[in-house]
């Protein structure tokens, strides 16, 4: 741990213990330099880190103060109660209907699944790609086909090393985004009619994949902050012949929940004992606001039962469609499915991402991106508290770019979505996040997309529309 | 038709009618200018066109002469007799084993499915892509996601217009190569257990797709020059509950067969009457050696039963993975499957191909490519006749880059493939082109790949190995 990280952590500990309270002034830089024996820049970096995570706030000419936690824990959404029993999945119509509206240019895309592309080094990627492609020998075009560019696979494997995860370059299949990786993994470990355990609420892409492959879903209770409940999972495994799990243990979509390390470990041990593959959808973990990257469940996998899927779409290169699967003992099957379905990933995209990883200061870009998203989250949470009806509960994830809102029960989210769309604002209604469409007064809100100036008027409008729905209801 | 095309056609007619015979000298340029009232360059262009198609040959300081047809029709492979009845498909192991060897750099890739990437304007594509990507606004990255860049879809639709085919930009879904298009189309019109009619022999990618989706195959008799026999198809439709056909009516892989226009029309009418979708794999039709592009079966489709799939992988941009489906009445289903499986195609690749279509003189590139491939075919056919055992039959397709060889019955193609590989030459053995692996003394030979200097020694070696197999056999 670096010095500034240690300092930041110490201050966080004091906040957590109540030693420092909301509104308290932090020691000045001069004081900290004296008391800790560190350089001024170390103190600045520590305070900046704390600010980016919303723990403190700067007041001009006054210094740094402990921030008001916007959401006392009591106001976060409740633990979900899963629907018991198996479900056929048929959400595709609804999902596509809702998402079709998101891409129009004049719509403020609070319902989008994508972060704002302006947050990414697109110009630098394009320049690097052009240069690298012109250097490529013709023969190399074929050598970049499935399972993917050898050096890119090695670079991806290197990023696993820092999390203590066993994943060799040979295990990695480059795919068309994480979406293809997840779909190939799911197909590799199931047959039509099989049962798959999912979160509640779950990412709609997971529901769509189950529907396409004619699989049945069984839900596992999922905490809005702590994610999948391992005990609940154990009970589900006893009750049903589960052939696979599809979970997002880190910054879950839509809630932002993250399982604690020990819970991830316990989950992997449970699944390994029962020989149930875990498809780990891990596309947001680079967007953490805390001290370090949360470990993937894969890092606790010693026998290859975790199929880890991720991509660069949310961290570096949206639209380049570079994802991958590190599919453990199922790697060969995944590679074969890839060959016989889409054959290979576009060579220019592979070359562009590789070039950036080698020359582009990926980690520096990520630090900036995390800071921006953390600051936007603070702002969004504040605006939700200000403009949405009282009684609205909201998660406050430690990474990613989604908030999950639980509105008062009489606000139908689908109706809210339609009204908002008529005002050129999109929302992702809770309905699309479960097979039985039961998250009816819930909304996923993307704070990584709109420009800061758009956010307040948009949330004000949504608050007004929600109030209108409530009064019409009475 | 341009003047030089008219002149070339007239000469071809004279050759076909026997007025001009092999070895006859064509009129000199001066004579033709006088007799036809055209410019010298028109005559040169006509002779060059005829030469590129192997109809005539230039002899230094002597002029142009009618070429010897290498393969009298009697020496082409025989009409295939389909296996009757339904078949489970399980070829994947064999196919992947065989194809795994093709990509090594020191292997002369006569077994490859890809044309030589050096035949393509890769540098120009890369430069155009780099420039276009840097001009792209961040927001446009998202607008290029499924179903694809709007202007690219329009450009693709424009190319249909010239073949009299009804396909609007709205119908077109951009995919990761033709392979994904074909797979999505197949999934859109079938359920596991359904019966699909295929050619015999068939492209192994078709067999792999059937296997992956757990479909059953029924074969239709296929002529090595004329393709699917419509009467045989009618009989198969009567006998089996066929849910879809997957055919390559133009330059079929592996045989190179092309159905006549009337046969394509009759086939589409038959399938339309019986409401059976046709998945038309049409990736080679731009590589024609004749006067004009063969019409796709889709051009005879008035009710949307043809799902036409193609790509730029074989005509412009290998490794960019830009293909598409124009799926007629099934277009919406295909788009939905795309969204829930791989989401979207890489934006840089889309932008690169679009930029080339708009600025890159695609048709000029194609003319050069066709001429090169036609000349290489002539050479390859000659070398096959020279070096392979007598009794070897060979197709002489009017486009593409494959020859289909029927060796004497006692030459096992899998054994030949293994021996050749030990000499660093790859071959595609006939075994991988049918569910029952019965094309055992057949070989698909890619003449679009090796450098011309490699071709003769490679075929000499293969001839020697084939002879060795025959003598060991006795």
UniProtKB/TrEMBL annotation, chains A, B:
Under Pfam families, the record lists:
Aminotran_1_2 (PF00155), GntR (PF00392)
What the entry lists under CDD domains is as follows:
AAT_like, WHTH_GntR
* Every HTH gntR-type domain range: 1-69
Has keyword Transferase? yes
The cross-references to Gene3D superfamilies, in alphabetical order and at most eight, read: Aspartate Aminotransferase, domain 1, Type I PLP-dependent aspartate aminotransferase-like (Major domain), Winged helix-like DNA-binding domain superfamily/Winged helix DNA-binding domain
- Does the record's keyword annotation contain Heme? no
Query: Example GO molecular function term?
Result: transaminase activity
InterPro entries this protein is in? Aminotransferase_I/II_large, HTH_trans_reg/aminotransferase, PyrdxlP-dep_Trfase, PyrdxlP-dep_Trfase_major, PyrdxlP-dep_Trfase_small, Tscrpt_reg_HTH_GntR, WH-like_DNA-bd_sf, WH_DNA-bd_sf
Protein keywords: Aminotransferase, DNA-binding, Pyridoxal phosphate, Transcription, Transcription regulation, Transferase
Family listed = In the C-terminal section; belongs to the class-I pyridoxal-phosphate-dependent aminotransferase family.
Protein known as: PLP-dependent aminotransferase family protein
Which organism is this protein's natural source?
Ramlibacter alkalitolerans
């Amino acid at each position: 741990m670096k010095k500034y990280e240690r300092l930041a952590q110490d201050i966080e500990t004091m906040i957590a213990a109540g030693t420092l309270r909301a509104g308290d002034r932090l020691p000045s830089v001069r004081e900290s330099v004296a008391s800790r024996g560190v350089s001024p820049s170390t103190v600045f970096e520590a305070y900046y880190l704390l600010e980016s995570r919303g723990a403190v706030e700067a007041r001009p000419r006054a210094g740094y103060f402990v921030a008001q936690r916007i959401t006392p824990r009591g106001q976060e959404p409740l633990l979900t109660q899963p629907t018991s029993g198996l479900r056929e999945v048929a959400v595709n119509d609804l999902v596509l209907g809702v998402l079709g509206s998101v891409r129009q240019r004049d719509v403020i895309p609070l319902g989008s699944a994508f972060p704002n592309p302006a947050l990414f080094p697109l110009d630098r990627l394009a320049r690097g790609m052009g240069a690298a492609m012109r250097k490529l020998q013709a023969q190399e075009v074929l050598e970049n086909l499935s399972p993917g560019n050898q050096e890119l696979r090695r670079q991806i494997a290197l990023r696993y090393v820092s999390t203590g995860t066993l994943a060799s370059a040979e295990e990695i299949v480059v795919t068309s985004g994480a979406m293809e990786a997840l779909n190939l993994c799911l197909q590799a470990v199931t047959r039509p009619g099989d049962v798959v355990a999912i979160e509640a609420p779950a990412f709609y892409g997971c529901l769509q994949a189950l529907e396409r492959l004619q699989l049945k879903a069984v839900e596992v209770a999922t905490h809005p902050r702590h994610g999948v409940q391992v005990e609940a999972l154990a009970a589900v495994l006893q009750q049903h012949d589960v052939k696979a799990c599809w979970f997002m243990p880190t910054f879950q979509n839509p809630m932002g929940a993250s399982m604690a390390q020990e819970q991830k470990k316990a989950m992997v041990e449970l699944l390994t004992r029962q020989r149930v593959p875990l498809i780990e959808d891990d596309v947001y973990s680079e967007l953490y606001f805390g001290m370090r990257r949360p470990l993937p469940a894969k890092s606790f996998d010693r026998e290859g039962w975790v199929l880890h899927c991720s991509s660069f779409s949310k961290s570096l290169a949206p639209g380049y469609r570079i994802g991958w699967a590190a599919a453990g003992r199922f790697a060969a099957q995944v590679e074969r499915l890839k060959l016989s379905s889409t054959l290979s990933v576009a060579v220019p995209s592979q070359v562009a991402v590789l070039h950036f990883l080698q020359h582009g200061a990926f980690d520096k870009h990520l630090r900036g991106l995390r800071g921006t998203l953390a600051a936007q989250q603070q702002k969004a949470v504040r605006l939700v508290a200000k403009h949405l009806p009282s009684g609205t509960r909201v998660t406050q994830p430690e990474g990613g770019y989604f908030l999950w809102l639980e509105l008062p029960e009489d606000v139908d989210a689908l109706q809210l979505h339609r009204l908002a769309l008529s005002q050129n604002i999109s929302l992702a209604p809770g309905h699309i996040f479960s097979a039985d469409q039961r998250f009816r007064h819930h909304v996923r809100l993307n704070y990584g997309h709109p420009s800061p100036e758009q956010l307040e008027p948009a949330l004000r409008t949504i608050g007004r529309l929600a109030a209108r729905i409530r009064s019409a209801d009475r």
